[in-house]
Structures are given as structure tokens and as C-alpha cells.
From TrEMBL:
It holds the Pfam family OMP_b-brl_2. This is Porin family protein. Residues 1-18 form the signal peptide. The keyword Magnesium does not apply. Keywords: Signal. It comes from the Bacteria. The keyword Signal applies. Residues 39-180 form the Outer membrane protein beta-barrel domain. It comes from Pontibacter anaerobius.
């Protein structure tokens, strides 16, 4: 009887050891499944904004020109196969326009959620919606009241990105759909067809 119990205990110990030894391989297999996309990862990015306004009523602002500024933030990309992935971002983005000798500047916190289509291992197309919240508005570095503005903005983003090792170089256009202003200078309610638009050129580093 003792020999039978000893043999059973030995078999049970060997089984437990085999299961424990198999854990690293299963973890590695799961890791490989999560890492199949060539563009998976997290990182930081930043670059130049070429901001402007568009819409049928933008002439109410007079003769306006684009405003060159910046954006910066973080991104995470989740691979769903070799061809497709999702990329949410959190960006601080400066938009606005220039009129005569004055610069009108609006700063936003923005969240794009982009579908990424990998044309090749080094080139991808990005397309998706984004939302933003205005956090400040200035004219020539002087804070102005944000009450006349719609502080919530939304739009569509589309662009191309190239990848070389950890580095990513890309460009995109963000077409705003939200009206920039909700009130006139006298406080009357308006919803002018004047919206933000911005071309972005950026450099990112993935980790």
C-alpha cells in the first residue's frame, strides 16, 4: 500500500512540475499573438500644425491666413492582425488663424481614434474620428473669454505614416465639423459655418 501511495505521489508531483514548466511557453505564445502587428506599441509624438479655418462664412473673419504652431502627445497602437490596427492618441494641439497683424490662437486637448491600414511593413494609412476640448483662447498672447466659442470640437482625421525602426514620420489632415463660435460679440446666439482645419506633420518614437 505504501508503494502505491508513493507512486501516486510521484506521478502527481511530475504532473504539477510539467504544468509549471509549460507556463512560460504559453505566456510566450500569448505574447506573440498580441505582437503580430508590425505597428503595435506605445510612444510619444510631436510636430508642426499648419492651422486655418474653413466654411462658407469664414469671410466674416476678414482676410485670414494660416497659423503655424505645434502639437504633441502620446499614442498606443493595438494590432488586430498584420494588416489592421487601432491607434488612440491624446494630443495637446494649438490651432487658430492670423488676421492682419494679429494671431488668434486656440489650444485643444484632443483624442483621435484611428484605424490603421498597413500598406507594407513601413507604410500605413490612418483614418478616423477625433474629439477635442478647447482649454484656452488668446489674441497676441492675451487671454480672451472663451464664452463666445464652442469649446467642444469634433472632426475627421486622415493621413499617411512611414516607419523606420522605432521612428515614425507622418502627415495628416484634420477636418473640423464643429462650429468655432456660438455667440457674436454682442452676446447674441449664432452658429456660423466657420470651422477648424489643420495639416499636421509629426515625428514619433515607439517603445
Amino acid at each position: 500500500m505504501k508503494k502505491i501511495l508513493f507512486a501516486a505521489l510521484l506521478l502527481w508531483s511530475a504532473s504539477v512540475y510539467a504544468q509549471d514548466a509549460d507556463v512560460p511557453s504559453r505566456v510566450m505564445q500569448n505574447h506573440n499573438l498580441l505582437s503580430r502587428s508590425p505597428n503595435s506599441g506605445i510612444g510619444i509624438k510631436g510636430g508642426v500644425n499648419f492651422a486655418s479655418v474653413h466654411g462658407s462664412e469664414k469671410d466674416k473673419f476678414g482676410d485670414v491666413n494660416s497659423h503655424t504652431s505645434f502639437h504633441a502627445g502620446v499614442f498606443a497602437q493595438f494590432g488586430l492582425g498584420n494588416f489592421f490596427s487601432l491607434q488612440p492618441e491624446l494630443l495637446y494641439s494649438r490651432k487658430g488663424y492670423e488676421r492682419q497683424d494679429s494671431v488668434f490662437r486656440m489650444d485643444y486637448l484632443e483624442v483621435p481614434v484611428l484605424a490603421v491600414f498597413n500598406i507594407s511593413d513601413n507604410l500605413s494609412v490612418h483614418l478616423g474620428p477625433q474629439v477635442g476640448v478647447m482649454v484656452s483662447a488668446k489674441v497676441e498672447d492675451e487671454e480672451i473669454d472663451m464664452e463666445p466659442y464652442n469649446t467642444f470640437d469634433y472632426g475627421l482625421s486622415a493621413g499617411l505614416e512611414g516607419k523606420l525602426g522605432r521612428f515614425r514620420l507622418g502627415t495628416r489632415y484634420v477636418h473640423g465639423f464643429g462650429d468655432l463660435r456660438k455667440q457674436d460679440s454682442d452676446g447674441s446666439n449664432i452658429n456660423e459655418d466657420i470651422k477648424n482645419g489643420v495639416i499636421q506633420v509629426y515625428l514619433g518614437i515607439a517603445f
